[in-house]
Write a structure and sequence with these properties.
352 residues, six-stranded parallel β-sheet
């Protein structure tokens, strides 16, 4: 193994209780793993926070979007050097041989390895990662900007493309002021799409209209008939909808809000069994509607999304929390108190 001086323990935020009554705890003594053959050890500098980290995680340390540097290299690894910038996205490895891998759906590979499932995620300061599938981070993008792009940014890049929306068409982003939605809204605006943001609070209204490039904002806490307001704004309905919220309300009303031939793309992940996305088949058929589920980005899409951010075309709005406030950061995200994306810096002296 090739390595710089690597400590035996590092920082981590671990799940101590799962479910609705989740509990997290920070540790200063979490064991640092040793990379095996074909693996690199990544020191995470900044990790993003996602709601799915708790109700989906199976490993001790959740997290699936992290920006860092290579701290050690396992046997047989080529093409990586100590100190190289490296990123962790949801999919950590795939078989590379199956139908899904060959057709751009490698994130659905049945033999795939996912962060916070088969391997610890980015809530651990040090984690091992299969070298061949780690993401290279270009110069010119800060770690706190890059981390959200590895999941939220890349996921919404794929989701936006799945809507098929083109220049001048209408796109609704449900949850546009949130950690995922605010990036989706920026992709739409950057592509010349007319974006309608659905969210709540004056802070998020200001964010969407004055910083993200949205054309209209609908406050679901105040509006009594959201589909009617969408029709008033668009005339015949939206061409596409990206749902980033994780509750039944976020997934309601899409049939009425879409125009003929429209597409809704499901991104938000509520706890399993708590939300149903469905509609009367007659309405679906008569309006020729399409429903798509979009998981995370593939390797190529992730690289493309990061390149877009590095070029300054899309910029995640982040609130950086120190490691000591890790649990508070997740609670703030859980209760919708963060406009944009929450990230945690492992180093106490972190600066952009």
């Amino acid at each position: 193994m090739t390595a710089t001086t690597v400590p035996t323990v590092g920082r981590a935020c671990v799940v101590t209780q799962r479910g609705v009554d989740y509990k997290l705890a920070i540790r200063e003594d979490y064991p640092v793993p040793t990379p095996a053959a074909g693996e690199i050890l990544i020191r995470i500098i900044v990790t993003g926070i996602c709601l799915s980290d708790i109700h989906c995680a199976e490993a001790d340390c959740p997290g699936h979007e992290g920006s860092g540097v290579v701290a050690a290299i396992g046997p047989g690894v080529e093409g990586w050097a100590i100190g190289d910038r490296a990123g962790v996205k949801p999919a950590m490895d795939t078989c590379g041989q199956c139908e899904m891998c060959r057709e751009g759906y490698e994130m659905n590979c049945p033999k795939g390895i996912m962060a916070m499932f088969q391997m610890n995620g980015t809530y651990a300061q040090y984690l091992v990662h299969p070298a061949r599938y780690a993401t290279r981070i270009p110069a010119g993008i800060a770690d706190d900007v890059c981390a959200p792009m590895l999941c939220a940014g890349a996921t919404t890049y794929r989701a936006f493309n799945q809507t098929g929306c083109r220049l001048g068409q209408w796109l609704i982003v449900a949850g546009a002021g949130g950690g995922v939605g605010h990036i989706a809204a920026q992709y739409g605006a950057a592509a010349g799409v007319r974006v309608i943001a659905i969210d709540t609070s004056e802070a998020k209204r200001d964010l969407c209209l004055n910083k993200l490039g949205c054309e209209a904002f609908i406050d679901f806490g105040e509006c009594k008939d959201i589909p009617a307001e969408v029709m008033r704004i668009t005339g015949r309905g939206a061409h596409g909808i990206i749902v980033t919220g994780a509750n039944q309300a976020a997934y309601s009303g899409w049939v009425e809000m879409l125009r003929v031939g429209g597409t809704v793309v499901c991104v938000g992940l509520p706890p399993k069994g708590t939300v149903i996305v469905g509609a009367d088949p007659i309405d679906m058929v008569m309006k020729s509607l399409t429903v798509k589920g979009s998981l995370v980005a593939n390797f190529k899409e992730c690289d493309e999304a990061i390149a877009v951010a590095a070029a300054g075309k899309v910029t995640p709005i982040v609130k950086v929390y120190p490691f000591s406030e890790f649990v508070q950061a997740f609670d703030d995200v859980h209760h919708g108190k963060v406009a944009g994306r929450a990230v945690v810096a492992f180093d106490d002296d972190y600066k952009k």
